[in-house]
Amino acid sequence: QVQLGESGGGLVQPGGSLRLSCTAAGSSFSTYAMGWYRQAPGKQREFVARISSGGTTNYADSVKGRFTISRDNAKNTVSLQMNSLKPEDTAVYYCNAGRFAANYWGQGTQVTVSS
Q: CA 58: distance to chain centroid?
């Protein structure tokens, strides 16, 4: 069992930056693939970025070159550095932990990009 808690969301102007963090409570954090997803109003939840247990990263095309996912296994955290933010990045961002059939979600943190 893994409990996830996100932080770092907020209001930012277009072109600005935010850093989201997700802290995991539970055992074996380093064995989980960790990811970030987002859900904008009226839209389905979509994949943003993922980092495997071995450190391999994947990104949605819409955020490549602007977002960076990283993990600190010693602190049981995964972070998402978001640069050059656009209004279309506005959404609730969710942290995800996955390993085999196990899949856990955080409660989400709101990111609003607006002038």
A: 12
